[in-house]
Every structure is written in structure tokens, then in C-alpha cells.
Amino acid sequence: MSRKRTAAVLGALVSVVAGLMAAPAGASGTDSGSPIAIVVPRAPQHWDPLTDSKWELGGGQAVMTERGTAPPGPRRPFEYAVVTEGPELRSLSYRAEVRIDEPVTRNDRDVVLIWNYQSPTRFYYAHLSQDNTIYPHNGIFVVDNADRRRIDDQWNGTDLGAPPAIDDTDWHDVRVDYAADTGRIEVYVDGAAEPLMTATDTSFAGGRVAFGSFDNYGRVRDVFVVGVRS
User: Fold this and answer.
1) Phi/psi class of residue 13: alpha, beta or left (left: φ > 0; alpha: ψ in -120 to 50)?
2) Which of 108, 126, 149, 155 could tie 161 with a disulfide, CB 3.0–4.6 Å?
3) Phi then psi for 3, rounded to 5 degrees?
4) pLDDT per residue over 84-121, tens digit each?
């Protein structure tokens, strides 16, 4: 990405975060006046995978080359790499280009964007999939020392969620906006004016971001995160 394009992306994200920091009437506004941080992982050492052997890091990409295995404990994404560059963040706008590398013939294929990562059993994630008909797919979830819990507004409670986020093997631009004070979450795909998924949850706030998959594989590039330091 060119310097001019990078500056434009960061400028847009800073504007988004400034809006997220605006405390609603009657709120304590804990993010108001807090310092904004910019996190742009580029070097391999900026990423910390759960399983090093399942990743290729470099060339501006973090590539998950094979499926993860189910970890013990709460049900949650199997494999991911945490961004260790920069500080932990509260309210944020997390933008990245992602691609699912598994063939479209596998309907449960997915990648996930993670934020508020505090531990392997405490974080939020957006599940981006071509299947939107079962509880674990294509939604917004929280892992809070228990099995992942679906929280997005689009899930009808039985068999249908938001339209499929990714149904091919192309690159897609994804942005997650999160306001810590209100718990509001919005997930945008490919520059859409309206979010594909929304949720509100205040279980906890603050942590790192990550990228991975539940039980598939894919890749991420051009990661930009602008947020409020925890």
C-alpha cells in the first residue's frame, strides 16, 4: 500500500475512533480525552501465533497455512495470531484485508477478527463465513471464560444470521468498530455504508487484536488499528 493510501486509511480510522470516544449523555466517558494509539503490524515479530508451525509471516502478510486443532476448555476459535506490536486498546477501529484460502466447496470455511484479547479464554471476535445458517457461523461472539456466546443483532435465534460475509477466495476489506463505553460493535465488509453485523455487549473492555480461524485457514494483510490506549 502506498504512503498516500496508508495516510488516507489512518486518517479515516482516526476520525472513526474520535466518534467512538464521544460519550453518550449520562455516560462516564472513560475514553474521553484518552490518548489515541496507532498499531500497524508489518514485521513477523509483531505477530504471536498460538502454533508457530501453522503460520507463515512476512511479505506484509500473516498466513495461516493449515487448520488449527480444538484447544481444551471453552469452545472458541482454534488458531490465531495475536498482534503484539503497540499497546492494548479499548475503543478501536480495526481494518484489514482478509482472504479465506480453503475451497468454496467447504461451506463452513471462515476467518475471524479478534479484539479485546486478554487471554486465550477472554476475547471478542467477528466470524466471517459463507455459511449463515447455524449458531457458530457468520456472527459476533464473546468468549468470557466460557463457551463462545453469540451476541449479534442479526441472528434470528434459530437458523439465519447476517448475509454471508465471504463466499469466495478473493481479498475482502473488513472493518470492526468497537466503542468500549457503550459496548457497541459494528462490522463492515468491502466499504459498505452500513454494517453487515452489529452487537452491543459490555462484558469487558481492553486488550489486543488478532487474526485467525475457527477450524479453517486464510490470510490477512494491510492491518491498521487505531484505538484508545487501555
Assistant:
1) alpha
2) 155
3) -60, -40
4) 999 999 999 999 999 999 999 999 999 999 999 999 99
